[in-house]
Amino acid sequence: MVIICQQQTTSRNEKIDVSIFNIKNLQCIRRDNILFQGLNFDLEQGGLLQIDGVNGSGKSSLLQMCVGLIQASEGSINWNGVNIKESRYQFQSDMTYFGHSNGVKAELTARENMKVMHALSGDKSDIDYSSILKQIGLAGLEDVLLSRMSAGQKRRVGLSRIFMTQSKLWLLDEPFNALDKNGKKIIEQLIVKHCTAGGMVIFATHQTMEIDGYPLQHIHLGNET
């Protein structure tokens, strides 16, 4: 089945002329099926882009292409005007990817998990783990084992990695999975805060993002109405 993406864009009040992240004529084929084709979009500084669609429509595949984990059948992905294949080191240093898995260990505490994630990121800056946990609504849980946390709390500990980097671009696959209403609101606010500061976020979700007053670009993958 050929599935064509549909893009809706909300314009920003302040126009920024330089396009930072750019996709041209992207196509994805999986098991001889075209999931999407002819996909084009630009994401500028401060840009927030939501990808949605039914299961199997190619949301995760699109994100993985944006990261460089899998190759597109056709098209190009550019960062600062350069194909990410040619600027892999610079692109990877400017980008953070968060996938379906939380990437945490149940036998470690929240603080210990954060230390491991920070070390693996290669970032050398000093991190106030307690401050980040407070931001994501987990104040006082620094030394609690993840095996004793709820699924939503574990998800937030996993998401803490994106707040421990200086990355300009966040690529998030179903970031709101397992989060309750309050947890989802906290992460939404932090995403908008990152964009307001000049960062960029591309996220895939089947959920509605409840934000007011901030422009949201939208790509729908699928042929359903």
Structural notes for this entry:
The protein has 225 residues and is α/β, with parallel strands linked by helices. It has a domain at 44-69 and 89-218: P-loop containing nucleotide triphosphate hydrolases (Rossmann fold). Helix content is 27%, strand content 27%. The protein is built from 6 helices and 10 strands, in the order E-E-E-E-H-E-E-H-E-H-H-H-E-H-E-E. The protein has helices spanning 59-67, 88-94, 110-121, 129-135, 151-159, 181-196; strands at 6-8, 19-30, 33-44, 48-53, 74-79, 82-83, 95-98, 169-173, 200-204, 217-221. The strands form 2 sheets. It has a 6-stranded mixed beta sheet, with helices on both faces. Strands 3-2-5-6 form a 4-stranded antiparallel beta sheet, covered by helices on one side. A hairpin with a 2-residue loop joins strand 2 (19-30) and strand 3 (33-44). It is globular. 36% of the residues are buried.
